[in-house]
Structure formats: C-alpha cells, structure tokens
Design goal:
It contains 5 helices and 4 strands, in the order H-E-H-E-H-E-H-E-H. The chain has 150 residues and is an alpha/beta fold. Strand 1, helix 2 and strand 2 form a beta-alpha-beta unit.
Length: 150
C-alpha cells in the first residue's frame, strides 16, 4: 500500500513539473522613437517583426506591446515606459524584449537603473540586436564603472 501511495505521489509530481514547463513564457515589448515620420513608421514595423521573431525563439508569447513616439531617449517624461514599469510591478513577465538597449536609455546610468529595476521584478531584458553575452558584458562593465565613480 505504501508503495502505491509513493508511486501516486511521484506521478503527481511529474505531472506538476510537466504542467509548469508547458506553461508559456510571457514577454512584453517596448519600442521608442524620437519622431513619427514615414521612415520611422517603417522601422517600427521592422522592430515589431524582429521582436516577434525573438519571442518565438524564446518560446514566449507577447502579451503586451508598448510603443512610444516623439520622445528622445534622454526624456524623463516617457509615459509608455512609466506604464510599462507599472505593468511589470503588477504582472509576472518573463521577458522585456527591445530592439536595442538604447530604446530604454542612451544614458548609461539611467539604462542601468531601468535594467536593475526590471530584473528585480523578475523580468529578463532581451535585446534583439545585441547578443546576450555582449549585452551582459556591457552591463557588467557599466555597473563596475558606475560603482567606481561613486
């Protein structure tokens, strides 16, 4: 009887692991452009397609797309990025996919603040144009430089 119970428990545990691994990963995307002319609109379409392809590679479903037009990366007033951060605080999301890191900020210290905050919320930042190793090396170097300057 004990053996049957143990096998039932083991079967249940295996089923739970399979269920958890089969749950789709979630992703959101963020695209920021300084202007909204016809050339930028075409780039935005290309960015969106590249982001969807990256999500497919990660086996993730894009649940929300955030697009911000008319805001340079230095602008502190980016309402869609503020909304995105609020969304991440309230919703578990596996990935934030951006065409490139500079979409978040071109200022290294501000970029680090965003990436750190996003990662603290349990979301991994993925860049379409920068490979993961180069991105990790850049962020590590920037963090060490920032801590040295303090």
């Amino acid at each position: 009887m004990q053996k049957d119970n143990e096998e039932g428990t083991l079967t249940s545990k295996v089923a739970n692991v399979k269920k958890q691994s089969s749950q789709a990963k979630t992703a959101i995307s963020y695209i920021r452009t300084a202007t909204l002319d016809s050339e930028t609109q075409a780039k935005t379409i290309c960015y969106s397609e590249a982001i969807r392809e990256k999500a497919r590679q990660l086996e993730a479903k894009i649940v929300t797309e955030w697009k911000e037009h008319g805001f340079p990366s230095e602008s502190k007033k980016r309402p869609r990025l503020t909304d995105l951060m609020s969304y991440l605080e309230e919703n578990h999301t596996d990935y934030l996919i951006v065409p490139r890191l500079s979409m978040l900020s071109r200022n290294t210290s501000v970029l680090l603040e965003y990436v750190d905050r996003i990662e603290q919320l349990g979301t991994k930042v993925i860049s379409v144009s920068e490979n993961e190793t180069a991105m990790a090396n850049y962020l590590a170097l920037a963090k060490s430089k920032a801590s040295f300057n303090r």
